[in-house]
Amino acid sequence: MEKNKFINKISSLLFYISILSFIIAFNFAHNPPGAWYQQSLPNIGNRNIVDITFLDSLNGYAISSIASDTSLILKTTNGGNNWWIANRQNSFIMTSIEFIDGSTGFVGGTNLIRTTDSGISWNSIYPFIFSNDLSFINQDTGWYVDSEGLLGGVFRTTNSGINWTHQVNLGGNNPTHIYMYNKDTGYVAGTTLYKTTNSGIDWLQIPGGGFGDMYFINATTGWKCYGPMQKTTDGGLSWQNIPLPPKSDTLPLSRVISFSNINADTIWAVGSVGVIGSSARGVIYLTTNGGTTWSYQLPDISINIFRYLYIQFVNKNIGWSYGVATGVHTVTGGDTTITNIINPINETPENFKLFQNYPNPFNPKTIISFQLSVTGFIIIKVYNALGTEIETLVNQKHSAGSYNVRFDGNNVPSGVYFYSLFIEGVKTDTKKMLLIR
User: Fold this and answer.
1) CB 58 within 8 A of CB 77
2) Could you tell me which of 161, 192, 156, 160 has the C-alpha nearest to residue 177?
3) Whether residue 138 is found in the same domain as residue 216
């Protein structure tokens, strides 16, 4: 009898557990957690993320700014849920990271390093460069650009970066960014846009201005951003502005600094700021018709990220968007609740420009100029060749306009120096200058 009672109790308990499990599963399926959830990096000290890339739904890499003469390479193998510091580099100002496949990747800046074992080890292969940006199309062939007016320009390698050919020097128009669609066709720009169709041997100036991000879906159709978004359907020979959502009390900053295409229609983009109540939050834009109209998303209010600087999707559901030290991730294609935006007829471009110092080379004084089209808090810092900060030239709020600041090299030795422009705490550009006594 006691045994039967015990069995009956166990049966009843299992029955109720089954019902409870069903209810939990039902509620979870119909009320899933937020479509975007926050991801965090490990403690990277007084550093910011300067570039980030994901190879697939699990594997990703990020590089940091330099602090205490050390910059970092970070890695994740579970879609960004956990990151760790995979490598530390001394006296190396990093600017860009790019992977050719799951094993081979490059990091550029004041050095060029390469991994062939998925980031386990990194080897310096060309320490005598300064690259603002890199573009490799395979393990052997790649380009880098250096915006410095005297010795910079476009450089090409065909042996994995061991040797480089200086293809062109555009002087004051030397580029800060490069995008190669294939081995023959590509684009470079600082404030002026150039195109090559013969692997960089010749560069043709074309209309359209600079870019911070660029992507071509085929040989003729592509997009670029430099504050505003632009689109071409004739291989870059002409560019049309894609109106972004207008500025308002809810969207005090409306611009794009990074975007990610899933296909010719669907594009995710970031760079703007939204305000709800007293909370400023990063905006994530979405278009599903190639940029004709846009919607926007503001990830959950508990996610406190002021502005997103990088965005990447590997398919229609899985994507990431990161700021300087943290980010968000979706595996469901973002929020289903979005806010539609009516595009304005015109939008004022929001460009920031850091010019090459003049004279360059200099002895011992030189002028650094910068230009703003909106008000912002500006910092300009000077670094030596080891990446050590030696002077802050500007550290205050400026209204829209053009400005000059003088750097006096009387107290530093001859050599290569770098100066960086920060807008609202985000580094937007770095250039090289040469002091010769």
Assistant:
1) yes
2) 192
3) yes
